[in-house]
Model the fold of this input.
Amino acid sequence: YYPQVGLPQLVVAAIYGIAGAAYVWLFRSFIRANDGWLFLLGLALLGTSIATDQLVDNGPWFAEDGTKLLGIVTWALFYLRAALRVLVADPVAAAAAEGPLAAPRSTAGD
Done:
């Protein structure tokens, strides 16, 4: 992982795990409101890729890389569907939304 900076693989994996858990916690309402099953499916596929990498020596490449690709595609689909849902439902409200996912406001007319 990062031997050049002195971080063992276990520490890096723990940092990624904590960051991932924090992301899911902070955006849990967004995930639930927007096809959360797709998000969880992507998470499961990426987790399967990691588990395969760690547990299976010289396994078939598609077991690790295939599940990783499917996880990435599933997450991309989740975010694409969420963005389209917001934009199609009410583009004006989406532009004026407040909160962590709000669009940047223009200060030109203020």
DSSP finds five helices and no strands in the chain.
